[in-house]
Write a structure and sequence with these properties.
By secondary structure, the chain is of the alpha+beta class. Helix content is about 45%, strand content about 20%. It is built from 8 helices and 10 strands. A hairpin with a 5-residue loop joins β8 and β9.
């Protein structure tokens, strides 16, 4: 089976499907930056010098000096504006993805006031842990029974470059892929009443959650996202079969209870017969022994209260 065939079954293929399978091949790296406070001081100094140049024009009379101070003031003003525009504040839990005329040059993870390259643009990408709950999905389990299922996914951005450039919207991408993974995991297991050793959606919650987290992580790795945890938040039979499945569960519970009752009743009958014979209370032939066993089992296993009948005759 090739990679394309494997992707049809629900697991994402390692080789993109298409003409050439083009993907954005980019990884996060640290951008070169300097101390933001020093850059801020430089910008203020340039602005002060620019203002001083414009003020000096009022005190000179030579045309050449006036033009010189005007040009100098304009240049200092432009440089100060450029320095101010390159300053950025990075809050805890956030990063700045920096581009220089469309080219990715790095990511700033250092918090506080930072100075990025001049004429660069910055985009804020949060690396805080996020969570969301999928919508309640209606899927068929491994036995074909329709079930309603939902999950909570906890995730965070690990590679800001991939999150920004590899997908159109990484938040929407994670939500859609999480629902797709949840559908695939739900169809791989029965809701209940599985064979020995087989995982079920209701009985093997930890195993199913681990499978879900692993599959979601594989699907969203392309977007530079890592999954912290995934848990089933809602699980129930679909309304159209819920009543029938409830009756089946009730029948299974009744059968299990009856098995316990019969097992206990048989033990009590055996004990009673052994004591009667050991203590020589009464001697029973096979026919009367069978009758006593039948009566005792009826009394012990019956749903209604037994009504005693007093025999005032003889045994024969």
């Amino acid at each position: 089976m090739n990679d394309t065939d494997e992707s049809v079954g629900g697991t994402p293929s390692t080789v993109p499907v298409g003409h050439d399978g083009v993907r954005v091949d980019i990884d996060e790296r640290t951008v070169t930056m300097t101390n933001g406070w020093a850059a801020l001081g430089t910008a203020i100094l340039l602005l002060v010098l620019a203002v001083g140049s414009f003020v000096a024009i009022e005190f000179v009379e030579a045309t050449g000096l006036i033009a010189l101070f005007a040009v100098l003031g304009s240049l200092l003003t432009v440089f100060s504006v450029l320095v101010f525009s390159a300053l950025a504040i990075v809050n805890p839990g956030q990063t700045k993805v920096v581009q220089f005329f469309g080219r990715y040059i790095g990511t700033v993870r250092r918090t506080g006031l930072v100075f990025t390259p001049l004429l660069s643009t910055r985009k804020t990408v949060s690396v805080r842990v996020r969570n969301f709950e999928t919508s309640e999905l209606k899927v068929n389990d491994a036995d074909g029974n329709p079930v309603n299922i939902g999950a909570i996914v906890v995730w965070q951005v690990a590679d800001t470059a991939r999150a920004t450039f590899a997908v159109e919207d990484f938040v929407d991408f994670v939500e859609v892929q999480a629902e797709a993974a949840l559908r695939h995991v739900a169809t791989s297991h029965p809701y209940d009443n599985a064979d020995a050793g087989e995982a079920t959606l209701r009985g093997s919650t930890d195993q199913v959650s681990a499978e879900l987290a692993h599959e979601v992580a594989e699907r969203v790795a392309l977007a530079g996202v890592e999954i912290v945890e995934a848990r089933i938040s809602h699980l129930a039979y679909a309304p159209e079969i819920a009543q029938a499945m409830l009756q089946r569960q009730q029948a299974g519970a009744i059968i299990a209870a009856r098995e316990k009752i019969v097992e206990g009743a048989v033990g009590m009958v055996e004990t009673a017969l052994e004591r009667l014979e050991r203590d020589a209370v009464v001697t029973l032939d096979d026919e009367r022994r069978a009758a006593m066993v039948s009566n005792l089992l009826v009394v012990l296993c019956g749903d209604s209260r037994a009504t005693p009948i007093v025999n005032t005759g003889t045994l024969h």
